[in-house]
Amino acid sequence: MIVTVQPCFHWIGFHITSYLLQEGVEVIGIDPIETNQSDFLYMYVGRNSNFQHFFQKKDKENHVQGTEEEASVEYVDQHLLVRKNRKAIWVKLPSLYGEWMDLNRLGIQDKDQLKSWIKEKEAVYIGDFLHDLSKSLLGDQAFQLSSHVEGEDLMDQRIEAVFHSLKLLC
């Protein structure tokens, strides 16, 4: 199976790309790489033999022949447009958190603020969300978000990882 992810270096797209590559799926990433973060994230997946990158969708269409088994995931305004088997579904994203997220956009400046935001929004960790999405994308199940209750210790570890990822960009 081949999955096209667009934009593949937005923080959510990057997690989708990484998850699929770890599952052994071929990924075609589309992203203009216009930010330092995008450029940095490219270094994590760029040399994976199952990954191809194109700056624009048109470039991909000019160089790669589409197949029946190809799926695509596109991040659009807090939704994912998932195309598979000639069907398209829109997945409204819950509040998500994880490494590489844009805390400035949310006005979050420290770990306590992020923890409060997670609790207030009942945010789901991106890895947990992708585990549920993969059942639909890689299998034949309809998408369903499972209930994800995490303990304080796990939440604190994940929050620590979010801030650690952002330090790598400095």
Summarize the structure.
With 170 residues, the protein is α/β, with parallel strands linked by helices. The protein has helices spanning 11-22, 36-45, 57-63, 103-106, 111-121, 126-137, 152-168; strands at 2-6, 26-30, 51-54, 70-76, 79-84, 87-92, 96-97, 124-125. It has one domain.
Order of neighbouring strands in the sheet with most strands = 3-2-1-4-5-6
The end-to-end span amounts to 36 Å
**In the residues, how many domains can be counted?**
1
Q: Give the percentage of residues in beta strands.
A: 15-25%
Let me know the largest β-sheet. Answer: 6 strands, mixed
Number of helices: 7
Which regions contain 5 or more consecutive residues with pLDDT less than 50?
none
| DSSP E strands, number | 8
What's the helix-strand series?
EHEHEHEEEEHHEHH
Mean pLDDT: 95
Radius of gyration: 16 Å
Specify the structural class: alpha/beta
Any idea what the shape is?
globular
Percent helix: 40-55%
